[in-house]
Write a structure and sequence with these properties.
Number of strands: 10
Strand content: 15-25%
Shape: elongated
Number of domains: 2
Strand order of the largest sheet: 3-8-9-10
CATH superfamily of the largest domain: Aldehyde oxidase/xanthine dehydrogenase, molybdopterin binding domain
Structural class: alpha/beta
Oligomer: single chain
CATH class of the largest domain: Alpha Beta
Radius of gyration: 26 Å
Amino acid sequence: MIEGGFEEDFSTFLPGDCGHAIKKYNYGALDIDWKVCKTNTAPKTAMRGPGQVQGSFIAESVIEAVAGRLGLQPELVRERNFHDISSLEKYFPKGSVGEPEGYTLPSIWARLKASARWEEREQEVEKFNESNIWSKRGIAMIPIIYINPSASKSAMVSVFADGSIVIETAGVEIGQGLHTKVRQAACYALNKLFPSGRGLDVSRFRIVQMDSISVANSGVTSSSTTSEGCSQAVTEACAILVERLTPLYKQCQDAAPDGEVKWEDLVSKAIFAVDLKVHHRYVPKQFHYLNYAAAASEVEINLLTGETEVVATDIVFDCGKSLNPAVDIGQVEGAFVQGIGFFVTEGVQLTEDGKEMAEGTWDYKVPTVDTIMKRFHVELYNSATLKDRILSSKSAGEAPKLLAGSVHSALRKAIVAARKQRSTWASSTLPFIKDVNDFRLDPPASMDRVKKLCGFDNVELYLATK
């Protein structure tokens, strides 16, 4: 059941997006019946990974319930239920999986286990819990499979008499590095005109904010793929310019004593002979593709207060051949921290008539500087060249937010450790401790929820054993 609010907004998209994220494990048989309900609350709109964040959480809840019932570590159950190529192609849209060598999740999982020192840290966490009464730690590792819709985008590239190059794209820069990637893509594509020599510097390229007249039918800036769609549209537009300028370039090269052709000289000759403005639309051949990644997070909880702390996080994220590693690592880090907000601090409380009670950060707790983990390591996994992808790359905008589920799973493990300890103090007749794994931790895992699940009377029970 999905609470849709009093009007449609984004709610009708949630079943599909949520379902894709749930399918990251091979369940063998899976049947989901979604109902979007009209209620008296505010409608649910889109915010970075809508539906897929919730779907990934549901999938992890299933794994943790199975692991708890069987007495196994969740990571072992996760690993045993990874897809192979045949099941992946069965669960996800046709063409989205790509070539078999592009399925990198098993390799990413193994890489993260090694780089995060998984087995050693599991033992370290166990020793910490044995030697600390009022603090407990948990460490968890989760994978994600995120489906991206490829974006058809248009662009306009104009060369002016002074040699400057102005680009207009069908995307809005909202901090995701779109302009940086587009400028780099344009420079790379236009420099193919120069087989030797210095070529053009990226500083010659200027991007102006688009409008719906010059770049018509631009669509929305969303779904993580706007940057790459715009980059490809600009790349193909620049390729047309290269084709137009190549005959004139060869003439200038033959006339030049050293064979070097300056850009300004080429433009001055081309300005009245060649159309130096190109409008082009990129249409993707592959309309969906998959992101793969994994994250390991270690947390610590205070049994007396319910406070939580994220000690460390390690991430391995498949960006293909990243268009800009600095931008993409920043996107991974930012999305993950936003995900910590969803899974740990940000809870929406409503009155009986459906009105939101929060009027600001006094009531609604977004992540702050002291929420971020003490150690944060992000590695971009350079997968094999992806011939059907834009410059062999993959996006890094929304998918990393799902990885913050590793923090939630680690908190659950820490709570299990606290409940095991409590069971040694209390009578086994208490229903609270009959099964230390039998509890529900809804996001956000706030202080009050953590404290309640660990027990309000731990101090009294402890003192009673002395």
